[in-house]
Write a structure and sequence with these properties.
- The two termini are 19 Å apart.
- The chain is built from 8 helices and 2 strands; from the N terminus they run ααββαααααα.
- The chain has one domain: Arp2/3 complex 21 kDa subunit ARPC3 (Orthogonal Bundle).
- The protein has 195 residues and is mainly α.
- It is globular and about 50 Å long.
- It has a two-stranded antiparallel sheet with strand order 1-2.
């Protein structure tokens, strides 16, 4: 019984166990998650074809707290809002809205967001977010996969050399800081919750 309790994401501590109340709470959390993602996206620094924001940190934290299913559902809801033209993305509405924006220079990163949430959520569901070391490995893997998808997409649009120069290099140090912050914050919260 104790093993099952520890192998759940943080949100499981607050969710009703079943029924309509659980579903309503999950929907509410997903909507709040998309609001956090939008605010984190709008907190940005212009770097060229792809801007830097707090969004990856928000994705890591949401996925860790919500777990795989609710984390990925939140990211998919966020993308659906963007596809419908709601200006939730970093440079929307300035650089476009909807599907046209999503197929632009940030398209690969948007797909990467969902995959990163899946990786981090999977780790949280298995209790890897209790340790800084194991959680750092999961978050770092999520970051690498997200950047790889972003790079591949951007390289198809502007060429590999420019994609590396503008879509990867400026983000290495800031994203490593975000990986470290998420990797330290979530185990710290678990430590407090246990007390």
């Amino acid at each position: 019984m104790a093993v099952a309790t520890t192998m759940r994401p943080l949100v499981s501590l607050a969710l009703p166990q079943k029924g309509a109340a659980r579903l309503a709470t999950q929907i509410f959390l997903a909507v709040v998650g998309t609001l956090i993602l939008t605010l984190s996206a709008k907190t940005k620094v212009d770097f060229g074809p792809v801007d830097m924001s707090l969004q990856t940190l928000a994705i890591f934290l949401i996925a860790a707290v919500f777990g795989l299913r609710l984390g990925v559902a939140t990211l998919l809801l966020y993308l659906a809002e963007g596809a419908l033209g709601v200006p939730v993305f970093q440079s929307s509405p300035e650089k476009g809205v909807g599907i046209a924006y999503m197929l632009g220079t940030t398209g690969g990163y948007l797909v990467g967001f969902v995959v990163a949430a899946a990786i981090v959520g999977y780790a949280a569901d298995r209790g890897w977010d209790r340790s800084i070391v194991t959680f750092f490995g999961a978050v770092l893997l999520a970051e690498i996969v997200m950047l790889a998808l972003g790079f591949a997409w951007l390289a198809g649009l502007i060429g590999a050399e420019r994609a590396w120069q503008f879509g990867i290099v400026p983000f290495i140090v800031p994203d490593l800081v975000k990986v470290a912050l998420a990797s330290a914050a979530v185990p710290a919260v678990w430590s407090l919750a246990r007390k």
